[in-house]
Write a structure and sequence with these properties.
The chain has 16 helices and eleven strands. A hairpin with a 2-residue loop joins strand 1 and strand 2.
Length: about 450
């Protein structure tokens, strides 16, 4: 443990970027929901209440689709304030909302049009598909969304490879286009109002344009501008390697300590694989450093990469940064290779910090010597906590012993999921305010 005198503290941050961004998203969704209801009412109501409910459910299902696209567009302003993991979680739950609203649309429309006929709801759907423009496209879109919803359920998701799930998930874009053309072709809200149709086209232009901008245009432009290449590959231990990436004008790359990139190393056998790795050192305008632990064939091949290899990097991503500080002092808690963004954050943070590094054995403490030197230079306290998972050495009493004023500090946490869940439980027991707890999980959406 290295302990030094505390330096003068910085004033706490008054703004809450996460709250501002979240409130903005809710406001955008609420405003569009109100506009949809207004245009729907202006178009008039059918005499059959079931058809009215079904049409409104279809409109809101499509609105949720557009909102879902915005959540995974990877727009920098949203990503830095909310984080890809939380945006992905919201995307997932919005997806199930889409599934249920579109199911309601199908059921209410089928029973509504079947009233007064002898063919029944299923026969009515078949007749509509055969005689009404766009209905067959809508049924195809619903079938795709149903399949995507099934493979996104937790039970199925855990049993599918990410690449398989992602390939199936891409068909959602086909469903979006099919549903959109169905609505503008036969939706009474749009066929009876040019203003409503103009609004709908504008909404979907923004939603799809956001995806194209965030997922294609911005990554391509940044890689053309910066021309990333591997500068050096440095083994840190038997199963950990650091890769130094250089390029042009890296001082203009808006990367912060704590963020991560999706890295593609453009070799013959790895160009198609994108892996999320955090920066393990604060960006200095000259190089970017990532540090990875061998966890499979893909990461094992990293130590064999050659200097000069071209790199395609998507990012920076993540809200695990100093932007979200609310207190002048901080606690940084790392587990295993989760030390990489913690080490980068320590380099960038101002004010007194306590660093707690949890590992099974001393030899598992990756970058420890580097972290110790940095802690000494920054005037930070460093605690290396070793031992088996049981008993919990980061239980509430242990954390309070290491950091008596933990409730007055920001807490940055990164490590394996079981360790993170345990520490989050300890922080709750210690009544550390939720606004002062900062963590991020790697979670990629299609």
């Amino acid at each position: 443990m290295t302990t030094t005198v505390k330096p003068p503290t910085a004033p706490p941050t008054a703004t809450r970027p996460k709250v501002v961004a979240r409130t903005g998203l809710y406001a955008v969704l609420a405003a569009n929901a109100a506009l949809v209801a207004l245009f729907f009412a202006q178009a008039g109501f059918a005499s059959n209440a079931l058809i009215v409910i079904g049409r409104l459910a279809g409109l809101y299902g499509a609105l949720f689709m557009a909102f879902q696209l915005l959540l995974v567009a990877r727009l920098p302003w949203l990503d830095r304030r909310i984080g890809m993991d939380r945006l992905t979680s919201w995307h997932r739950w919005t997806g199930f909302g889409i599934l249920w609203t579109l199911l309601a649309h199908l059921v209410f429309i089928a029973f509504g049009y079947a009233q007064g006929t002898e063919v029944g709801p299923i026969g009515t759907v078949v007749d509509l598909a055969e005689t009404t423009e766009g209905v067959l496209r809508a049924l195809t879109a619903f079938a795709i969304i149903l399949v995507v919803g099934c493979v996104s359920a937790r039970y199925a998701r855990r049993r599918l490879a990410y690449e398989t799930w992602h390939f199936i998930h891409l068909y959602t874009y086909v469903a979006v286009l099919l549903a959109f053309t169905h609505q503008v072709a036969v939706g009474t809200t749009f066929t009876s109002s040019n203003a409503a149709k103009t609004y709908w086209y504008g909404l979907w232009t923004v939603a799809l344009g956001s995806v194209v901008l965030g997922r294609m245009v911005l990554p391509l432009w940044r890689n053309l501008r910066h021309q990333f290449r591997i500068q050096a590959v440095v083994p840190e231990s038997d199963n950990v390697v650091s890769i130094y990436v250089t390029g042009r004008d890296l001082d203009k790359l808006p990367a912060q300590a704590g963020q991560f990139f999706l890295w593609r190393f453009l070799t013959k056998d790895r160009w198609w694989q994108a892996n999320p790795f955090s920066l393990s050192a604060a960006p200095d305008g000259r190089t970017l450093r990532l540090t990875a632990k061998v966890a499979g064939d893909g990461t094992a091949a990293l130590r064999h990469l050659k200097p000069g290899t071209r790199v395609f990097a998507e990012g920076p991503y993540g809200a695990f940064t100093a932007l979200h500080r609310t207190r002048p002092e901080a606690v940084l808690i790392a587990g295993g290779v989760g030390v990489t963004p913690i080490r980068a954050l320590l380099e960038e943070l101002h004010g007194h910090a306590v660093v707690i590094y949890r590992v099974a054995t001393d030899r598992d403490a990756v970058l420890y010597e580097e972290l110790r030197e940095l802690a000494h230079a920054k005037g930070a306290e460093l605690h290396l906590v070793t031992g088996p998972p049981v008993p919990d050495k980061l239980a509430p009493a242990e954390l309070l012993r290491l950091v008596p004023d933990i409730t007055d500090r920001d807490v940055f946490l990164c490590g394996p999921p079981p360790m993170m869940n345990a520490v989050l439980g300890s922080l709750r027991e210690l009544n550390v305010p939720k606004a002062q707890t900062h963590f991020e999980r790697f979670s990629l959406a299609g």
